Amino acid sequence: FCAIVDRMKYYGIKTGSDGRFKKGDINPRTAELGTERIGDHGFVEVKVEHPNKWKKKHRIIYENYYNVKLNHRDFVVFLDNDKRNFSIENLELVTVRELFFINKNFDFDNATTELRKSMIALAKASVKLTDIKKNRK
């Protein structure tokens, strides 16, 4: 990182940032629990632990509603592709294998809500069929 900063200084490249927090910015380390921010790829994140543990809001809502604990191989997708619509009817759980099938075979990002539901159902069926063929559970 220091080498990059040195090169930027050498060539006179300015980033527009002096590295300090501006008025109104949230310091991720000192933010209170429950603070929301816009994180990676436009997802709303909620601070859940100190000093710096954030979790995606739609995952929290899904876990609380269905009283389950999601792991890193579980994904909650938005059926209408609106990352601010947190209604439980808009959230659907898919596994990493199902998501791989969807991304490999379909244009999920540009699909309608009904088409997304069909894609997920087809992915679940395909993964289940593969498991049965390979005697997995």
Structure commentary:
With 137 residues, this protein is of the alpha+beta class. Helix 3 (96-105) packs across helix 4 (113-133). The protein contains 4 helices and 5 strands, in the order αβββαββαα. It has helices at 2-11, 57-66, 96-105, 113-133, and strands at residues 36-38, 44-49, 53-56, 74-78, 91-95. The termini are far apart. The longest helix has 21 residues, at 113-133. Strands 1-2-3 form a 3-stranded antiparallel β-sheet. A two-stranded antiparallel sheet has the order 4-5.
Which key features would you list for this structure?
4 helices; alpha+beta; three-stranded antiparallel beta sheet; two-stranded antiparallel sheet; extended; single chain; 137 residues
* Number of beta-strand segments: 5
The main sheet comes to:
3 strands, antiparallel
Radius of gyration: 20 Å
**Residues in helix, %:** 25-40%
Strand % is 15-25%
Separation of the first and last Cα atoms: 46 Å
